[in-house]
Fold this protein.
Amino acid sequence: MIKNKTSKVFGVVLISINILSDLSGDPGEIIAVKLNQNEVVNSHLIIEKEGVRYAMIALPFDKQGKSIKFNNRNILINEKNFGESRITIENTSMVNLSSEDSLRVFKESQLIKKALEKYSTEFKSNLSFIIPVKGAISSRYGKKRFINESPRSPHLALDIAATTGTEIVAPERGKVILIGDFFYSGNYLILDHGHGLLSSYSHLSKISVSVNQFVEQGEKVGEVGSTGRVTGPHLHWSVYLDNTRINPESIIKKNFLETIL
Ligand SMILES: [Zn+2]
């Protein structure tokens, strides 16, 4: 947390100096950074409580052991071992892609990247997410991934296994900004929750919403399936803040916001 060192000079003027080195947190977490009275902040989710403003800062997984900057502060990202996950994909054409599929994957990744850069102000979340599907957690955030024994990008999402057709609901109010049938993600959609907070849903058997539709928390958006590259029916759920993939399990904790303020 920020320490404010206040000293009295000539008995009149108060000088406040921030000691900026002691903010830290785990990769994939959101931390609440208390803002100074008139501090200017661009493009961040700001939540106000009892007259105090807090900026919600996402700690990137890939900056472990390093610091990120927020205004004048340095935020240290702890190193954390999330374990590993080994999966086997029998269909090798889904692992070693043809040039045609590679091109398709590239185009789709560009489309997704562009959508995730969206910073809209139609909504403002208070970070009280609910779980989008009832099921068993089958793969957690941060696991090192091996597909057919080859190392891959870490799993920066939450997998919830459920039978095909199980209802998926919006964990928070938002707007549908992208729908597609993608190589890896299958039937896929992105919800924009405003101020840099977004979430995505992969491998759906059915999508029940359309682009530009507004959804309330708890409203159905689709059904669990096994489209795209999967080993069985599940929801691959990602949550993004300022384009950083955060740990979805953190944000669904009861009274999450209170725990970080
Ligand atoms: Zn997954």
Summary: The helical segments are 99-116, 248-251, 256-260. Residues 210 and 249 are 26 Å apart (CA to CA). The longest strand covers residues 174-182.
